[in-house]
What we know:
The structure holds 2 protein chains of 2 kinds.
Chain A: E1 13-17, E2 22-23, E3 60-61, H1 62-75, E4 82-85, H2 102-120, E5 134-137, H3 156-164, H4 174-180, E6 183-188, E7 192-197, H5 218-235, E8 239-244, H6 255-267, E9 272-277, E10 284-289, H7 290-300
Parallel strand pairs in A: 1-4, 2-3, 4-5, 7-8, 8-9
Antiparallel strand pairs in A: 6-7
Helix pairs in contact in A: 5-6, 6-7
Chain B: H1 2-8, H2 14-36, H3 44-65, H4 68-76, H5 91-96, E1 98-103, E2 114-120, H6 123-127, H7 140-166, H8 170-184, E3 209-216, H9 219-227, H10 233-236, E4 240-244, H11 257-269, H12 271-281
Antiparallel strand pairs in B: 2-3, 3-4
Helix pairs in contact in B: 1-2, 3-11, 11-12
Amino acid sequence: xxxxxxxxxxxxxxxxxxxxxxxxxxxxxxxxxxxxxxxxxxxxxxxxxxxxxxxxxxxxxxxxxxxxxxxxxxxxxxxxxxxxxxxxxxxxxxxxxxxxxxxxxxxxxxxxxxxxxxxxxxxxxxxxxxxxxxxxxxxxxxxxxxxxxxxxxxxxxxxxxxxxxxxxxxxxxxxxxxxxxxxxxxxxxxxxxxxxxxxxxxxxxxxxxxxxxxxxxxxxxxxxxxxxxxxxxxxxxxxxxxxxxxxxxxxxxxxxxxxxxxxxxxxxxxxxxxxxxxxxxxxxxxxxxxxxxxxxxxxxx
Amino acid sequence: xxxxxxxxxxxxxxxxxxxxxxxxxxxxxxxxxxxxxxxxxxxxxxxxxxxxxxxxxxxxxxxxxxxxxxxxxxxxxxxxxxxxxxxxxxxxxxxxxxxxxxxxxxxxxxxxxxxxxxxxxxxxxxxxxxxxxxxxxxxxxxxxxxxxxxxxxxxxxxxxxxxxxxxxxxxxxxxxxxxxxxxxxxxxxxxxxxxxxxxxxxxxxxxxxxxxxxxxxxxxxxxxxxxxxxxxxxxxxxxxxxxxxxxxxxxxxxxxxxxxxxxxxxxxxxxxxxxxxxxxxxxxxxxxxx
Lengths: 301, 290
């Protein structure tokens, strides 16, 4: 590691983990009908099990998150080079008796960030940014308040996330992070980077996103950041993975944002290795067409 | 409101109206989708079928057009082209236009909890003792100037807006502004210069992803085992390998864009392969649409 002078062993492996959604209100034995928070189950099928139940609509019991991280610690931690962690670290807002608050969102994100730090840090008390395994978090649509809505920074929320992710976001990027809630991490210094892209600025369900054509639009500013960073990486001869929460597919992004984002990934095909995202909970892949994106943009112009 | 405006619009042509209405519908659908996200899964099989019938089908159609030999012949042909017949393309042309968006399974048990380990090529690093660069270029300067660029861009926007508000020769100003906007839109990339070669996503080389291993926790089995025994949960809770990229139907020897496009084509035309793929997409939870 030319940045720190520390010797590191590369494994040629990394982890992508997403959408943990831990729910502190989850109660084992409660009713699935009551989103596993309360109630007496009427039948066996309605009982909330200890580790959660697939397809039930309930969030993750905290023990599911803890056991997942424990399993990763025991089986994978020392075999990977970095972790791409693509957001949504809080329960859904699906219980009227317990409406989600901004403080709860930040608190739970803090807890999960601390757990990630504990799991992957080098344990260097003098330098909390010293990690055995780099962790690159990104912002989910449930990690912001209100749900989906996230304004162009600097805002209290971008500052709060810099505080929560202080060990993950390189210090010199504080000001650009404050604007875009996005950042770059060199996972192999001078060679390989991962971009954490705040795709909420391109997300059509974000009420503050209209398009990516006007300079005051958050998406325009994000793409400005994206383009300059890609060009700098190219000039340094580096390669890069893209990561974010909401995947850059047509159904999720505003049309102009989708076309522009797709075109950037196309025109930097000499350095971009791929993109890893979460949000949809379905394990699949989608090919996006750069040539079509250019045509669509030219037509719109 | 927008819909009414579009319907009453005097200047817009039919195509614009349709695009605008589609945009509004898209917004509505997105809002609905977001509401459903993370809650009890619904219509996910239908969603996956849409993925196959749109994205994968298009790739399959293009794969059918790959014909290296006839691309040159076709270019030389001077006679009137048959418009209905799609012209042949080279495999390189096909692959280069695509990027792959990988969407991960979640830990939240919408289906079963899952995550993925990616493997990538580091052979050149292992074989090269001088791999590490001796001089490391810090990023401080770059990010400082980038911050300034972003700041200036917002200031420019404010200045543009205030000029318009003053209202001096609005029409002329509008024309000028549009021209400037097109010319100065820094969020539109220029085409990749020819001097750059295809990167690790396209051609196997250093950092090319080579394989992945998908892990999942079978919650029904784990909860059942817990129910039937008195051992601690940590002895019972475990992730296991669900599948890997080198087994059927994936059968990928590397994870380049070309391999993904071949897979998309296979998934479109091969029903058993598609069914297995969908089963794994839902983390082997057995999910079916109601």
